[in-house]
Amino acid sequence: MDVRQYYRKLREVEAGITEPYVLVTSLETSDGGKAGIVCEVSREQAAKLIVEGRVTLSDETEKKTFFAKHAAEKKALEKADIARRLQVTIVSAPDEKEPKATVVADSETGTRK
Question: How far apart are the first and last CA of the chain?
Fold first, then answer.
């Protein structure tokens, strides 16, 4: 491909993308690229990959699946973080053989005896 043609097409594709970050879906390539992987990339990177024939812009179902998957992963990470920070103290019940201490409050003064 001619370099001028490449950069002209790159500018055209980039001008057609309005959002700063877009979701793209990979295509199978001869150098081992796997098809169907959705990624979020910048507008410039998306234009370059589209011109090179490595990706296409994701459709609405792929976008919904991508965001739902990432929301579930975020929720699982937050849950794991809370579980990691949670501290549990186990207090055993006192033996029944030991006498229980009783606290008696004086009703007039409110002090304990």
Answer: 96
For the whole model, what pTM was predicted? 0.65
Query: Concatenated DSSP letters for 34-58?
Result: PTT-EEEEEHHHHHHHHHTTSEEE-
Per-residue pLDDT of the chain (113 residues; tens, 9 = 90+): 689 999 999 999 999 999 999 999 999 988 888 999 999 999 999 999 999 999 999 999 999 999 999 999 999 999 999 888 877 777 777 666 655 555 555 555 555 55
Which of 76, 72, 53, 64 lies closest to 23 in space, CA to CA?
Answer: 64
Domain locations in the chain? 3-85
